[in-house]
C-alpha cells in the first residue's frame, strides 16, 4: 500500500494504469496536470514516479524541516491549485505555532499562516521538469494534494543554484 492510499481510498486501478502510461509518455510532465486529467490525487501520481525521484519525510518533521529551509536564503515558493500557480521568490521566515497555525512573518514576501496540522506527508522531489532537473520539497495534505512547494532556485542561466542543490542533497541524507 502506498502512503497516498493511507490518506484516502486508493485510486481505481484503471486510472492508475492511465497515469503510468501518461508518465511513460512524458516523464517530465506536470504531476498536477496528470492527476487532474485522470481524476486522482497529486500524491497518487507522485508515488508512481520512479523511487529515486522522491523521498518521503514524515509530517511530524514539518517544523524541523521548515527551520532548515529558512536558512537557504531566497527560494521559489509555489502554491499550485486548479485555479492558479502562484510563484513567489523570497526567504522563508522562521515560524512559530499559535492559534492552530504555523505563523510565518518577517522581511520576506512569503508570510502568513500555515495549517501545519493538515500536513500529512512531505516529499523531497528530484525529477526532470520540461527537460531540466528540478528539486523541490513538497508538503501534502490529507487529500493527497500539495499544500505548497519549496523549490531550489535557478540562476540567470536557468541552472540550479549549487549551494541550494547541496542543501537539498543534505536533506535527503538528514531527513529522509
From TrEMBL:
<dbReference type="InterPro" id="IPR053733">
    <property type="entry name" value="Heme_Transport_Util_sf"/>
</dbReference>
<protein>
    <submittedName>
        <fullName>Heme utilization protein HuvX</fullName>
    </submittedName>
</protein>
<dbReference type="InterPro" id="IPR010413">
    <property type="entry name" value="HutX-like"/>
</dbReference>
<dbReference type="Pfam" id="PF06228">
    <property type="entry name" value="ChuX_HutX"/>
</dbReference>
Amino acid at each position: 500500500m502506498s502512503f497516498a492510499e493511507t490518506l484516502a481510498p486508493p485510486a481505481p486501478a484503471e486510472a492508475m494504469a492511465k497515469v503510468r502510461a501518461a508518465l511513460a509518455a512524458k516523464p517530465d510532465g506536470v504531476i498536477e496536470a496528470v492527476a487532474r486529467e485522470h481524476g486522482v490525487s497529486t500524491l497518487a501520481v507522485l508515488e508512481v514516479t520512479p523511487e529515486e525521484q522522491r523521498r518521503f519525510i514524515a509530517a511530524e518533521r514539518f517544523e524541523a524541516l521548515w527551520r532548515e529551509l529558512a536558512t537557504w536564503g531566497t527560494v521559489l515558493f509555489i502554491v499550485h491549485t486548479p485555479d492558479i500557480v502562484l510563484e513567489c521568490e523570497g526567504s522563508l521566515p522562521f515560524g512559530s505555532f499559535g492559534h492552530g497555525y504555523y505563523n510565518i512573518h518577517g522581511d520576506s514576501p512569503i508570510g502568513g499562516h500555515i495549517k501545519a496540522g493538515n500536513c500529512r506527508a512531505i516529499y523531497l522531489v528530484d525529477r526532470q521538469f520540461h527537460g531540466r532537473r528540478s528539486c523541490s520539497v513538497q508538503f501534502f495534505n490529507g487529500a493527497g494534494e500539495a499544500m505548497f512547494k519549496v523549490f531550489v532556485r535557478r540562476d540567470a542561466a536557468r541552472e540550479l543554484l549549487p549551494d541550494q542543490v547541496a542543501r537539498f542533497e543534505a536533506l535527503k541524507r538528514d531527513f529522509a
